Amino acid sequence: MLEQLTGRLETLSSALQLRAQRQQVLASNIANVDTPGYVARDIDFNAALQNAVSGKSAPGMAQTSAGHLTITSSQGLLGSPLAYTVQTQPSLDGNSVDLDQQRANFADNAIRYESTLRFINGHVKTMLSAITGQ
Amino acid sequence: MSMFNIFGVSGSAISAQAQRLNVVASNLANADAVAGPDGKAYKARQVLFQSMPGNDPGTAGVRVKTISESEAPARRVLDPAHPSADAQGYVTHSNVNPVEEMVNMISASRSYQNNVEVMNTAKTLMLKTLQMGQ
Which residues from chain B sit within 8 angstroms of residue A121, using beta carbons? Predict the structure, then answer.
């Protein structure tokens, strides 16, 4: 019974966490816009959210022998791997940050973070009015 | 709250860009300095940024790795009447290129502004997160 009240909140909280972490990654990209050799990072949000909701972690390397080392994927967000963004224009210092694109992504992610927050707030209000029975 | 890291990342970028602005100011101030009796003129200085891995995966701050001196040849002007002229009548000026420095200054100031914007957005999002469920 209680699961029906809070079940949707779990998905939304995973989405919120992912948005917050993506915001950090994008902030790092913007901070490193003048660093030579820096490669911009990002995540595939769809895949990462599906992984986070289903509790799966990203596929690692298969172990076909007892001697193989286990690789813990510490490089990722909630178990999903971070990818490298595609360079739009080549630069002399090897930096692949496209500032316009990163700023757009940052603003987009901020709005989506806020909308996730509103969904959570709306859900909480709905459930509160449901349990007060009015 | 994981978004606190944004302030560390963007703060490091702001301080690195401020140092770059300081170096530009020093170069521009010394653009017209002439060599003393030892024949050594002011050499333009340049900062080199390096990214600094953060606590979370994918996040990286910025720091100034080194401040190097430009190896460009000093500007020599024939002016035998000048008190600092050498035996051949040449005055050695600094090797600062004011045009390059102005471009550098604009770039540093834009990057600084960008990071301030990032911190403002992060602050707004975190304040809204504090009101979650109300």
Answer: 132-134
